[in-house]
Amino acid sequence: MKLKFLAAFGLAATLYSCDDTTTGVGEFVADADEITASAQTFEATTRTLKYTDLNEEGVFSRTSNAYLGKFTDPDFGTYTTDFITQINCTEQFEFPETMQDIVATTLELSYSSFFGDSLAPMRVRVDMLNREIDDNGEDLGLYYTSYNPEDFYDKNGEALAEQDYAVRNNSWTDEQIDSIKSANGYYPPLIIDLDKSSKEKGKETFSEFLKRKYIEDKNNFKDSYSFIHNVLPGFYVHNTSGEGSILYIGAIWLRMKVSYLVESSSGKVDSLAYTSIPFAATNEVYMSTRLSNSADALNRLKAETHNTYLKTPAGLCTEVKLPLKEMYEALGNDTLNSVSMSFTKYKNISETSQNSLYKMGTPQNLLLIRKNEVKDFFEQKQNYDSKTTFLGTYNSTTNSYSFSQVNRLISQIFSDMRTKEEPAEGWDAYNAMVLIPVKTETDSQGNTIGLSHDLEVNSARLVGGEEGEKISMEVIYTRPKFNK
Predict the structure, then answer these.
(1) Residue spans of alpha helices (H) in 185-286
(2) C-alpha count within 13 angstroms, C-beta hemisphere, residue 28
């Protein structure tokens, strides 16, 4: 192998480890004497977008978690969140044959984490839906964060339950809370009494309602469809007062305390016993979170031009406009071995603000995707492929997010530029990318098997902006001698 060939590829190896599945355009000449490897830098431009700039419906929130609360940040404004959930009923469910009564029914919200003030006084309200929601997968609008809950419940009707709470339940000691949290990953749950309000008003309680529906027809409880259509369409859970905390809810239970008769020492079935019967909110039934952010605050941050922002949930993301036309003119007939880019994070705005008492987290994973493909990506539950969609993880050492295989996408775009008509808005605008914070779902081996929008309270301020520092794109390419 000739020294010229080694020197050329030595340069490439020094600058960047090339993609082992490199795609290219034009002919690649195998003769080492005819190949040169080079590096070139281009500049991408970034700006802040609101999520509603991508889709006026907000973000697609089909997850197994729910969020509840209200928090006002001096920089990002007020954020509120609540949710609708249905309750699953197991197949062919039956209460004990000798059931005497449903003594009490509660709705339990188990949260693994929270944001804000653990002692902030809050009030939660639970309303029963006035119509069922058939989640057959056709109405994807049900899962967007801007859905209107008034389509499913009577806002002027009486609440099923209302209850005051704080994240830190003072009926538990710190030692007890730590023990519960270490045992199952959750804090002591927020337990909402669904009978108290109607009992105080002398009306049929929720427990009595459930018992009556069961006595009317046991088939009302034979499966989730029957239960949802004939007994309980679902709950709308929301705050009516207070602010300062957001619960990250990972498990929801409808728990019934039931009394029934068992055989006593006399041999007769006359001894009263009690059992707890839980129904869960599961992936087989509908659940969706509604989110609302302060428009004025987001518009103010979006207007900044010397940096960009990421704000979750459903707040701000960053658009990345690649210099595709310039790159194509320079490298359109070359093989792109690697294209890498990095986005540096400033200190969080909440870390530097004198007014922020609670520091937001940093988004840990960013999806880099073409702006016009965001809607389909999340609705169709796609995973990143490192070909047209890319995942970058926050590196606390370099304080940045890096993407190293963008050559695969750009090579594909170059092919389109060669064979297709230029879009009306131009190649650069048509292929504009966005950085979106995401949560990853992994299998038992740690492989990423799915992505969803990050719905926790996180933020980042990035180097960039329309009038700020440009984002460097480091390109390593190989050029056959006849292309010089």
Answers:
(1) 196-200, 206-216, 224-230
(2) 11
The residue whose two tokens read 């006593």 is 264
Say what the pTM is: 0.88
Yes or no: say if 256 and 277 are a contact pair by the CB < 8 Å rule: yes
The Cα–Cα gap between 468 and 291 comes to 31
Per-residue DSSP letters for 83-146? EEE-----TT----TTEEEEEEEEEEEEEEEEEE-TT--EEEEEEE-SS-----SS-GGGGBTT
Which amino acid does the sequence have at 180?
Answer: I
Angle between helices 407-419 and 324-331 (to 10 degrees): 80
Residue-wise pLDDT tens digits, 255-279: 999 999 998 888 888 899 999 999 9
**How far is the C-alpha of 429 from the C-alpha of 423, rounded, in Å?**
9
Closest CA to 462 of 46, 9, 37: 46
Strands (E), 166-244: 190-193, 235-241
Tens of pLDDT along 13-31? 444 445 544 444 333 444 5
Angle (CA) 143 436 463, round 5°: 155
Cα–Cα distance between 405 and 98 in angstroms, integer?
A: 65
Q: Which residue do the tokens 């969080």 mark? A: 348
